[in-house]
What we know:
Blueprint: H1 13-22, H2 34-46, E1 53-57, H3 60-71, E2 77-81, H4 85-88, H5 93-98, E3 101-105, H6 113-122, E4 136-139, H7 150-162, E5 167-171, H8 174-181, E6 196-200, E7 210-214, H9 220-229, H10 238-248, H11 252-273, E8 277-278, E9 286-292, H12 293-301, E10 307-308, E11 321-327, H13 334-341
Helix pairs in contact: 1-10, 2-10, 3-9, 8-11, 11-13
Amino acid sequence: MFFASDNAGAAHPKVMQRVMDANDGYAMPYGADPIMDEVRGKIREIFEAPEAAVYLVSTGTAANVLALACLCKPWETIFCSEVAHIQEDECNAPEFYSGAKLSLVSGGDKMTADALRARIEMENTRGVHGPQRGPVSITQVTERGSLYSLEELNALTEVAKSYDLPVHLDGARFANALVALGCSAAEMTWKAGVDAVSFGGTKNGCLGVEAVVLFDPEKAWEFELRRKRGAHLFSKHRYLSAQMAGYLEGGTWLQTARAANENCAHLAKGLQQKGAEFLHPPQANMIFARFPRHLHQRLHQAGAVYYMWGCTLEGDDPDEMLAARFVCDWSITTDQINQFLSHF
Ligand SMILES: *Cc1c(COP(=O)(O)O)cnc(C)c1O
């Protein structure tokens, strides 16, 4: 009954197998290994982008900040939602790596085209004295488990393009979004006006690997230099490559995402039947739900693990409605969810 996060689960056996297979003999370091060639080809195929530059790093934060740094100058702003991972959970690494500052679009986890336009209009009004407009960063799946439809994505990138600003997609949960929308990777990215993607692996079955996909191959060298200077050029790179190879092989990444989403939908339905209220409509593998304290206490006593959201389990009023976050990873089973629901 573990719902704390999708980076707390095990790695997928196919990923482990490829790592084991790679653990033999010698391979050139720093991304010159043959498995990286395979991965690059596969990712270009998945994205229908034969020219794209593809790199691997070991954390999602590194993927985000290195990609963003390649899209902006130190005097620019990075537009993102007020609860974006790059704002709340990266310890100012985006600012550190890019030199730019974040410019927050208000209105919760999902930016609207109007709110984005309004925020962009607020910047760049003071000539040399003020910050200049820079890239827009969109998170898909959002930090609150919501999705941007293709229409909504296109509306945002249209605003960005109307100001000639590049677009970054934080896809820590890229696969979960893709299978939920039922579209292609190209449709969710470059066909929708996205210039750079952080393509998550860790939360969906890898040990620790994320890809950065830059649709403009001219950015490749800058990315390589920034990655090395930023201390994220992995030495025994074949072990990153092997993880990503196992992840992509035979559509493992889509199967794991589907399993996580389906189990999350099952959990959401169960919670709803028990009378829980949702803070955000659950659309992928993350749920934010509210129900009385005494139920949370009972679930915790029974061994359920999840984060309370902006409140504490301890308190006097047993009927107080408390919010919590539930994340389903690829390895959670329907039995575990049923067991969890049986404690209500
Ligand atoms: C988990 C996550 C990341 C990456 O986090 P790391 O801990 O650096 O791997 C990036 N963006 C979002 C939205 C995430 O949920």
